[in-house]
């Protein structure tokens, strides 16, 4: 089973983990969160992240971060070892839910699943779906004429 580590600006990582545990209460042992406070030095964040990975041992780990180029992502790039750790940035709840759902798959497949979950979970919606829109009342008043063409 793969581990999942979310590294994000505080309090996003913990909030995402709590959302996942609401849906998958049994996933608590597989999902870690590392909130990055605004005033913390990147070296301190890196030390905390390495400590979380060390607790897991040699387990393959998918690391998810919030914003490319920001401190959480920059720290996470230093965790990559070329074998047991993969990184995906732009984490959102659909991505994390997909990752948790398929955490038993090989790490490379998990990266693909998580990325697809994140992108497929973002879609524009109309203010109301056509089937939920109110229909106009039928007027039987002969003085009220609508001519449709």
Give the key terms.
single chain; 4 strands
Q: What best-fitting shape do the alpha-carbon axes yield?
A: globular
Q: Helix/strand/pairing class, anyone?
A: alpha/beta
What's the main sheet like?
A: 4 strands, parallel
Q: What gap, in angstroms, lies between the N and C termini?
A: 62 Å
Fraction in helix: 25-40%
How is the largest sheet built, in terms of strand order? 2-1-3-4
Find the count of extended strands (DSSP E, 2+ residues). Answer: 4
Instruction: Report the radius of gyration as a whole number of Å.
Output: 22 Å
State mean pLDDT (0 to 100 scale).
90
Poorly predicted residue ranges: none
Taken in chain order, the helices and strands follow as: EHEHEHEHH
Strand residues, percent: 15-25%
Helix tally? 5
Task: Summarize the structure in words.
- The structure is a single chain.
- The protein is of the alpha/beta class and 149 residues long.
- The protein is 38% helix and 15% strand.
- It contains 5 helices and 4 strands.
- The protein has helices spanning 12-23, 42-56, 71-77, 93-101, 107-120, and strands at 3-9, 31-36, 61-65, 85-89.
- It has a 4-stranded parallel sheet, with helices on both faces.
- β3, α3 and β4 form a beta-alpha-beta unit.
- α1 (12-23) packs across α4 (93-101), α2 (42-56) crosses α3 and α4 runs antiparallel to α5 (107-120).
- The longest helix is centred in the first third of the chain and has 15 residues, at 42-56.
- The chain is globular, with a radius of gyration of 22 Å.
- The chain starts with a strand and ends in a 29-residue tail after the last helix.
- The mean pLDDT is 90.
């Amino acid at each position: 089973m793969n581990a999942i580590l979310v590294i994000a600006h505080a309090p996003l990582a913990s909030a995402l983990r709590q959302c996942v545990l609401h849906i998958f209460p049994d996933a608590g042992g597989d999902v870690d969160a590392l909130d990055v406070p605004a005033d913390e030095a990147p070296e301190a964040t890196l030390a905390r992240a390495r400590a979380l990975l060390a607790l897991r041992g040699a387990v393959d780990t998918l690391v998810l971060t919030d914003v490319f180029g920001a401190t959480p992502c920059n720290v996470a790039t230093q965790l990559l070892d070329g074998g047991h750790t993969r990184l995906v940035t732009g984490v959102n709840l659909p991505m994390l839910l997909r990752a948790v759902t398929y955490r038993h798959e090989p790490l490379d497949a998990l990266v693909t699943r998580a990325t697809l979950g994140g992108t497929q979970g973002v879609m524009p919606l109309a203010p109301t779906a056509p089937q939920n829109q109110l229909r106009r009342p039928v007027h039987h008043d002969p003085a009220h004429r609508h001519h449709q063409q």
